[in-house]
Amino acid sequence: MRARTFEIARGVHWLPMRGANVYLVDSGGSWVLIDAGYPGSAATIEGVVGRLCRGGRPRSILLTHGHPDHAGAAVRLAADWDVPILLPEGEAPFVNGTSLYPEPLVFWLARLLPRRAMEALARGSDLGGDVRPFDPQTGAPGMPDWTVVATPGHTPGHVALFRPGDRTLISGDAVLTLAWHSRLGSRGVGWLWDLARCRPRLCGPPTVFTCDWRAAATSIATLADLEPWVLAAGHGVPLAGRHVAPALRDLASRVSPPSLAGD
Ligand SMILES: [Zn+2]
Predict the structure, then answer these.
(1) What is the whole-number distance in angstroms between the Cα of residue 158 and the centre of ligand 1?
(2) Cα-Cα-Cα-Cα dihedral of 67, 168, 223, 148, to 10°?
(3) Domains of the chain
(4) Ligand 1 centroid to 55 CA: how many Å?
(5) Per-residue pLDDT at 262
(6) Distance 217 CA to ligand 1 centre (A)
(7) I need a labelling partner for 225 at 20 to 30 A (CA). Which of 16, 48, 55, 255 fits?
(8) Is the pTM for the entire model greater than 0.85?
(9) How far, in Å, is the centroid of ligand 1 from the Cα of 222?
């Protein structure tokens, strides 16, 4: 079946892969793929990208972070297109096969599994030699209209991408737009009601996969200060309009670091 795509802002194409979003950004003919979905997504992404690029290919694959639902098909795509995988340098230690992210799930697994099994998990996250770590302060290569926003917390080196010209924000997993249970911004079981109605809502990143709560909360406030018009998250339906910035500010106020004191 032909995968559907949506142009959610000028030159920003949303590829809703199963379980995770991928974006293809055209900056005056310079195409960059943002995130790469789960393993097994490569053929679908290649089909869609080939159509959008009219037979061409992106110049690079830029990952907001190295989680497997964002980096899963990156190695295969990089090999097929012969392009580099750009990764914020703070993520590099977690995609070279030696270290796992310091997130709750990993700590729980480490209590249950033998060391050899944990080492095998780390090896499984190795993205290989096509990775090119970049300094977020130098901007996103191939995306001259965009700024890179350091948004640590969900993972140590996580970044978002922001285009000031039309206030388009690609947030990765720093902010999500679906009824996902998250300790950052969830209101009791209200998320269940939203989920039942399929109503997208803003929330912080998922609990068990987030490394540093306080940093994640600060990053949400950083993104709220940008006052985005379009919010394209790693999971959920992209949102657009005048309600986006107030909703993000509201989320930031609910999860600001002082409210986490004593957690
Ligand atoms: Zn993630």
Answers:
(1) 9
(2) 60
(3) 6-260 (3.60.15.10)
(4) 30
(5) 42
(6) 15
(7) 16
(8) yes
(9) 18
